[in-house]
Automatic annotation (TrEMBL):
This is 1-deoxy-D-xylulose 5-phosphate reductoisomerase. The lineage of its organism: Bacteria, Bacillati, Bacillota, Bacilli, Bacillales. One of its GO terms (molecular function) is isomerase activity. The keyword Isomerase applies. The keyword Acyltransferase does not apply. It comes from Alicyclobacillus ferrooxydans. It is an enzyme of class 1 (oxidoreductase). Pathway: Isoprenoid biosynthesis; isopentenyl diphosphate biosynthesis via DXP pathway; isopentenyl diphosphate from 1-deoxy-D-xylulose 5-phosphate: step 1/6. The gene is dxr. Residues 146-231 form the 1-deoxy-D-xylulose 5-phosphate reductoisomerase C-terminal domain.
């Protein structure tokens, strides 16, 4: 019988690659539901190609546009809207939910999928950053599982899959980072970064928000928190290593000093397929890495003085409570402002730091508390931007 699958964020970079991998895998999968934000044209193509039972879009305007333009044979389809539509999609009885929306909008649908014991293939790291302390125990309680799609976490997952003894054998996780487009830029150059500069990632082709996060190293910070939750590893045992070629996707050092690394070309179809077919490895038409041509793999330490977002992420991870949720929400707002040309690049982490200084401390008791704090932190960050308080 085919495995049923729901893709949240099917019109994004990861969503599109997921559908490509599913197409290549043939009839072992069937699509149950798809969700998009605003890209109705692409969603219509995806509906025609995969024939889901349910779809959802970001808002009422997108719903109206979709229902008017759907080919007649799909006119009967139920179309969900907004967070409610995402949650409905996640609750449908698919075996696997690919969580590939961007941002904390993924919190409630990812929670809904976990809550019904589904397997979640997780790209949406913001959800785990904001709500990981509640989500991971829920995964265990509900018999759900989270399979990482993020390349570094897939790499670590693959390294751990090959270890002999499970408990206590890991010394540290080594999370690799490309260093982003500004790895070699000095502080004066960073003051004059343009949006186009920041969107030019050296090794990966990704959505706009994560591309900016890679440029500030916030992406690596979010990934450290993600690794902490996924692999139940203390922050002192998670190290970031800058590796500009993005060939080693991460490594695990074991207590005997041995290190296992996962390597491959920078192509997200690999971790996506690994999660979807886990624990099987299925043949793919890919070219092998040519080590003679690669010639050099290099490594350096991250510079948290030029890229303070990474330091902030370690700090909030260690602090716990609402702090990681606030960091994430403030970052989403600040990155949005940068992309609109309203905030300098170097101000992104200053805005986040200011929001962390001003926010209310505390511990969320439920996922709804996290969603509420996400909203509060966004309003706080907008006020910080409006009043320029990040300059203080
Ligand atoms: N791209 C990559 O290589 C990697 C991405 N990730 C993570 O995966 C996630 C997705 O990244 P990526 O695919 O690059 O991002 P994209 O921006 O390309 O895609 C985001 C998806 O989310 C949808 N979306 C955005 N906002 C909303 C909303 N408010 N309501 C409903 N749907 C919404 C978009 O819809 P639409 O386009 O129709 O508006 C789109 O389908 C992120 O969390 C990212 O950090 C992790 C590792 C690698
Ligand atoms: C493909 C992927 O997993 C991204 O998260 C990638 O790692 C971003 O690159 P950086 O290492 O530059 O953040
Ligand atoms: Mn990654």
């Amino acid at each position: 019988m085919a495995t049923s699958i729901t893709v949240l964020g099917s019109t994004g970079v990861i969503g599109r690659l997921t559908l490509e991998v599913l197409r290549d895998l043939g009839d072992r999968f069937e699509v149950r539901a798809l969700t998009a934000g605003q890209n109705v044209d692409l969603l219509i193509d995806q509906i025609v190609a995969t024939r889901p039972a349910y779809v959802a879009v970001g808002d009422e305007t997108a719903r109206k546009s979709l229902s008017e333009r759907l080919p007649s044979e799909f006119r009967h389809m139920e179309i969900g809207v907004g967070t409610e539509g995402l949650v409905t999609a996640a609750k449908l009885s698919a075996d696997v939910v690919v969580s590939a929306v961007v941002g904390a909008v993924g919190l409630l649908p990812t929670w809904a999928a976990v809550d019904r014991g589904a397997t979640v293939a997780l790209a949406n790291k913001e959800t785990l950053v904001a709500g990981g302390d509640l989500i991971m125990p829920r995964v265990t309680a509900q018999g759900s599982s989270i399979l990482p799609l993020d390349s570094e976490h897939s790499a670590i997952f693959q390294c751990l899959a090959s270890r002999g003894s499970l408990v206590g054998s890991v010394r540290k996780l080594l999370v690799t980072a490309s260093g982003g487009p500004f790895r070699t830029w000095d502080e004066a150059q960073l003051e004059n970064v343009t949006v186009a500069d920041a969107l030019r990632h050296p090794t990966w082709n990704m959505g706009r928000k994560i591309t900016i996060d890679s440029a500030t190293l916030m992406n690596k910070g979010l990934e450290v928190i993600e690794a902490h939750h996924l692999f139940q590893t203390p922050y002192d045992s998670i190290e970031v290593v800058v590796h500009p070629q993005s060939i080693i996707h991460s490594m695990v050092e074991f207590v005997d000093g041995s290190i296992i690394a996962q390597l491959g070309p920078p192509d997200m179809r690999l971790p996506i397929q690994y999660a979807l077919t886990y624990p099987e490895r299925v043949k793919r038409q890919t070219s092998s890495l040519n080590f003679a041509e690669l010639s050099r793999l290099s490594f350096e330490a991250p510079d948290v003085s030029r890229f303070p977002a990474l330091r902030l992420a370690y700090e909030v991870g260690r602090a716990g409570g609402y702090a990681p949720c606030v960091l994430n929400a403030a970052n989403e707002v600040a990155v949005g402002a940068f992309l609109e040309g309203k905030l300098p690049f170097t101000a992104i982490s200053k805005v986040v730091e200011q929001a962390l200084e001003e926010h209310e401390q505390g511990m969320p008791g439920s996922i709804e508390d996290v969603v509420e704090m996400d909203g509060v932190a966004r309003l706080l960050t907008q006020a910080i931007l409006k009043e320029g308080r990040w300059r203080d």
